[in-house]
Amino acid sequence: MTEKKMGPYRLEATIGSGGMGTVYRGIDERTGDKAAIKVLPSGMSHNEGLRERFQREIETLLQLRHPNIVRLYGFGEEEGELFYAMELVDGKSLAEVIVKKPIKNWRTAVRYSLEIAYGLRQAHDMGIVHRDIKPANILVTKNDKIKILDFGIARLFGATGVTMAGGIVGTADYMAPEQAFGEGVTPKADLYSLGAVLYAMLARQPPFRGSTVTEILDKLRYSDPIPIDRLVETIPNDLAQLVTQLLEKNPDQRVPTARVLCRRLEALLETPEDTDFEMNLADHSTRVPSSPADEYQLKDSHDEAPTLDPNVRQMAEAPTMNLTGGGHSASPQGNIGGKTEAPATIVTNRPNEKESPQTRFTTVAEQRKKTSEEEQRREKGSAWVNYLQIGGLLVALGVVVAVMMIAPRKPDADMLYHTIETSVKDGNLGAVDTQMDDFLDRFPDDSRASYVAELKEELNLRRREKQYQMTAMLGNSRKQLHPAEQLYLEALKTYDTDPYATRRKLQGILLTYGPIEANQGDVARCLTLAERRLKQLNAVLAAQTNQQAASIRERLDYAKRISTDDPERARQIYRGVLQLLSDRTWGSNLAAEAEAGLESLRR
């Protein structure tokens, strides 16, 4: 290829490309360090909003330093093209592993997932969401360790859309429902995607299969994936349940945080090794994840980055970037413990449109000197401000200490459980919604957690039933509901006016969409509510039937007694009974008796 440069990086070879840009293998001509250089689509450089978002996003991502996250070295602009430099990893992508060398032991899939969860935990604690967790963005090193690629980059292209000009923002096969349909992205979207990746590692296929994005999105909204333990044999029940929970359509029903997920995965790895059987796929047609076009091609084992003189490395250390053309640069990343953490970070000022394209560099040493001089000038001119700040800090510290002294401690498991149990006995389950969430989040391994989870699900059922009742009463739009939910709303409308028709509809819903345990999320709750309604309705109708049968029996006996003295009145009663019981199967015996009475009066 024609030699090309991005800042001080000389681009040696193209190693991947896709909708979010092209990846090159590059070498820093000042230090000899190798890096993966991702050049973003040219359209970004012409959009001022995207440029500013690019700078803010990358400055945030530079703070991520975790062994399970591909290290971001820096970012910059070269002749109008935006790029960033990242760690060049020795290994292959998880997509390639699944395609070419499928995972045969569930423990390996759980270990990989745990390392992904470790990386997500740190990022989420810093307020950073990845938004595009998928096998192609997960790297498996030569040492069989996991590194997450492209952290947070998807947000540069728009967080809520599925597609963009030139590529896909997120991947439909692994995207959380709320992200796919623009309903907002939280850390739980990453947990859904991790669940989909774990599903793919175990089953060698994503949760939903389809020939088009539209087909996959339709299944993502309305369907539930085949339970993983139906596709894959010899995996622990706890693992199957965890995968199901991660793939819940409602974010509130998923594992609450990456930290809790880490504990669940760690517990699975503590399972006795006598469960380590080779995984066998059940007889289902499968589709392994294909290697995407923008797959990160990793470096060869012989491409070791040279280590140069420390002074040379220090001069190449993390410069700063000013995309807006102003004279103030962002503060550079410093050293940790006196040791340089990364090779050069390339940053440039935007060239004047009237000048020829160029790249300007600012080294960390130069920036530190400039910052130091500015700070000295500020200190001389505003010493009194510093004194006020110190005084304010002391006051704030005193307030914090006082609050800590008087603030109540977080309740332990026993205190929380007692509060929950008391409210249950008082029939006020909704009052302890927050306490139940707190208990399940902080004490998932407590022996009482399963009972609290059942109470939480009961509360969810009650709330869902109220939503259905409100929708049925007000006639709100039902476009977003599953067909089973729509039919349930129709049944509710006839509950008071035609209970027998309601009973037939409820029976039909359960027969058509059941069994309940084969469904998940709101559909499973809808079927549970339908089953409860049917039981209640059967009990009410049974009581009514017994009462009506006793009353009709009494009128038949009366007609029989007066048939000799007042045959016309007796005839009227018999005819009335036949009319009342014409569509009541339970009254066939009574109707037969009324028919016999009429016959006797005709003789």
What does this structure look like?
With 603 residues, this protein is an alpha+beta fold. The chain has three domains: 4-88 and 302-362, 2-Layer Sandwich (Phosphorylase Kinase, domain 1), CATH 3.30.200.20; 91-281, Transferase(Phosphotransferase), domain 1 (Orthogonal Bundle); 477-603, no CATH class. It has 20 helices and 13 strands. The chain has helices at 48-61, 94-100, 106-125, 177-180, 187-203, 213-222, 228-231, 237-246, 258-269, 310-315, 364-381, 383-406, 413-425, 433-442, 449-474, 483-493, 499-513, 521-562, 567-580, 588-602; strands at residues 4-6, 9-18, 21-28, 34-39, 72-78, 81-86, 91-93, 138-141, 146-148, 163-164, 167-168, 232-233, 280-281. The strands form four sheets. The protein has a six-stranded antiparallel sheet, covered by helices on one side. Strands 7-8-9 form a three-stranded antiparallel sheet. Strand 2 (9-18) and strand 3 form a beta hairpin. The protein is elongated. 34% of the residues are buried. Mean pLDDT is 76; it is low at 158-169, 283-358 and 360-371. GO terms for molecular function: ATP binding; protein serine/threonine kinase activity. Residues 296-305, 366-380 have a biased composition (Basic and acidic residues). ATP binds at residue 38.
